[in-house]
Amino acid sequence: MDDHSSRRDFIKVAGVSAAATLVSTAISDAGAAETDSSAPTAGKGKAKVLLGVNMEFIRSADKPFQWGVERAAELGYEYVEPMVHLGRQMLSEGGYFHSVSMLDDPCGIRRICEKAGVKIAAISGHSLLCQPRKGAEHLIQAIRFAGECGATIVNTDEGPKTPWTTIDEDHILMRYTIHEALEVAEPRGIMIGLEMHEQYTKTPEGMDRIFNLVSSPLLGINFDTGNSYLAGQDPIAWLRHVKDRLVHVHAKDISVEQSKEERGKVTGTPVGCACGEGVIDWAQVIAICKTAPRDIILSVECGSVEQAARSIKYLKGLL
After folding, report:
1. 262 to 107, 267, 300, 302, 317: CA distances (angstroms)
2. Boundaries of every domain in the chain
3. What is the CATH architecture assignment of 3-316?
4. 50, β-bridge pairs
C-alpha cells in the first residue's frame, strides 16, 4: 500500500473513531448532567423530537441572519438552521438576506446564536453532488464551517444534473463528491444529511441508490416532508422506510392550493406553508421520529415570521 492510501485509510479509521467518541460523549453527558436536556443525542432508546427553524423563514423579510436568529428565539425555537454560501453576496453583505458567507468567522455565527439562546441544528449546505467541480468545494467548506460554528449536521442534495451526462455517470460523480466530503466530515464528526430535492431523490428507490453509493456511519437522511409529498410520494410511508437512517427533518407543510397545482409535477419547493395548515400528518411524523435511533430536530421550513409563529404553536401542541 502506498503512502497516500495509508493516509486515506488512517483518516477514515480516525474519523469513525472520532464520530463514535462524540456520540459516546453525548450519551454520557446527557446521563450525567441535566444542564442541557434539549441537546440531541444518539443511542438513547426512544428519541426526543425537538423544534428548530430554517432561516428561510425570514427570506421574504429582507433581514440579516442575526435579526432572524433573534426572531427565532423570541418565537420559542430551540434551534436554527443557517444557510451558507461561498464568496461574497451583495444582499447578504448589505443586511438584506439571511445567508451567511463561509468567508466570515464561523465562531461569530456561534456567538450570535449563543447570545440569543438558541443552538445550531444543522447547516443548510446544499451542493451540486452531480457536479463535483462546483458541489464538492461547496460541501467541503460547509462541513469545515459546521465544525467551527458548532453544528453536527450538514444537509445537501444531488442538485440539478448537467444535460450531457447519463444517469450512471451522474451516480459515479455523486459517489466521488460524497467520498471527498466524507473525508473531511469524518475527522470532525460531522454528519451529512442527504435530502430529497431533485431528479434522482424524488423516489425512495432513487434516494436509496445514492445513499448506498458509499458506506459511512456519518451519512444519513435529512427527510423533507414537503418535497417528498410534492414528488408524488407518501411522506409517511417514506419516512418509515428511512427512520433508521434519519438524522434531521425539514418540517415543511404544503398548502392544499400548492398541492393541487404542483404535486407530481415538481420535486421540491423552497418553503411551505405553516405547519398544521397543509396536507402533512404531523402527528404521524412525530410518532415515527420518536422511533428513530437518535433525537430528531424538526426544522420548520416556511415563508414568513408569522408562519413560523403559527408552526411552533401547532407543533408544540403535538409534542
Report:
1. 40, 9, 20, 17, 29
2. 3-316
3. Alpha-Beta Barrel (3.20)
4. 297
CB-based contact 59:29 (threshold 8 Å): no
Residues of the chain below pLDDT 50: 1-8, 10-37
Cell of 255: 398548502
Region of 19 on the Ramachandran plot (φ > 0 left; ψ -120 to 50 alpha; else beta): alpha
State pTM to two decimals: 0.86
The residues, ordered by sequence, that sit 6+ positions from 183 with a Cβ below 8 Å of its Cβ are 8, 11, 12, 15
Q: What is the pLDDT of residues 102-125, one digit of tens each?
A: 999 999 999 999 999 999 999 999
pLDDT digits (tens, 9 = 90+) for 50-102: 999 999 999 999 999 999 999 999 999 999 999 999 999 899 999 999 999 99
Contact (CB, 8 A) for 197 and 231: no
Give the count of beta carbons closer than 10 Å to the beta carbon of residue 158. Answer: 29
How many Å apart are CA 312 and CA 53, to the nearest integer? 9
